[in-house]
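From the shared-data thread, chain only:
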Amino acid sequence: MRFRYPLLIIFMMGFLLAPTRVTAAPQADVSADSATLEFPNTVTFSATLEADAPIVDVTLEYGNDQLTCGEVTAKAFPDFTPGTSTDVSWTWDMRQSGSLPPGATIWWRWRYVDESGSEYLSETQSVTWLDNVHDWQTLSESDIRLHYYGMSAEAANNMLASGIEGLRRNREQAGMTPDIPVDIFVYPNYEDMRDAILYEPQWTGGLAYSDFSIIIMGISGDANWDQDTIIHELTHILVGRNAFTCVGFIPTWLNEGLAVYSEGELDGSMKTQLDLAIRDDTLFPLRTLGGSFSEIPEKALLSYAQSYGVVKFMLETYGQEKMDQLLRDLSDAKPIDAALIERYGLDTDGLDTAWRESVGLAPLVVAQATAMPTPTHVPTFVPISGVPLAVTPTPYAIPTSSFSETESPEVRSGPPILLTVALLCFCLMLLLIVGVIVLGVVLRRGNTKGGDHV
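Structure, as tokens:
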């Protein structure tokens, strides 16, 4: 009797571990599986699907490779003619969904079901979202892949060297390293670059997409400017990936300050703006630089210069390790004030005070902020009259979902309330006037008829 339960357990384990019969999904029979690019507007997926019984349901699953908070798969349901063999096609229109950056990887697969209930899944295919008009060349070293055309190999090598230098500076200054290689697409002019993207301002000179680890930029004609731009935008990529968070945000002053600091000495125009603001005590409260910067050139320059000054103070006073820890805290979704207090013993206002004192200014007395600002990211400016304005944050992720031709989003809005009330009063007044006129006519006729009987 003492062996009854052990034997029962062994019997049950043997039953659970015994091999079971698993029915494998049927092998998908897919041919002519392709993606046709009409860059930068559309990509059309098409294929011929076959099954043992008539196909009754077809789904296209697609997406792109980028850093996200979870695995996302978009689905489309193309029209098709049921049969054991059917041709399918569906177009992803970037003009409706928003554009992907040049160089992004698009993947897709077909899932379909036949009349018997058998489900088929094709192998995943991929394509690079990039025009095939230009003769792209590629240089690679370390974690940098530089893609270019229309420029000399010597100039391309100089830009690649700038990217490698940018990696070194960010590693030594802030402890930031890339988790995947960074792709830099260099266009020989700004016009070509703008033709490759949708819905960006005409003054755009470069963009950094940290979620894709992609930089695109045009050539300005100033070699030093272009090389500094690579380092600047590369820093945005590293900040965006090292401090990636789905809940919190990275204040713009920190993102931009690190990017400008990585370029080296402060640009002359920015230094002049910063020196004047320190002399006149007209610096911005640091907390107000957590969101978007002004589009007024003078204020923008001061915002970048002041961000540089604060980050320089943090790195040279407290060291690289604390900056590395701060970025990790932000990646863990800690609010900026909580992260600053834990690593530096100061919140945003306290850091502002400490930096102001380091440049000989008294603490700034400001009203208590009621809410943290939300950053509004804008692309990099084209240099204007040689003044470098091209130091701005990384844009947010590009949408990956799409609309069908009959599902284009609509923006609905009603008339203003005051206009509605005014129209209503006018209508009531008009009805009242008409009523008075009708009543007068009726009474007059009544009086006329009464006189005939006298």
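Residues 1-24, 369-378, 383-415, 446-454 have pLDDT under 50 and may be disordered.
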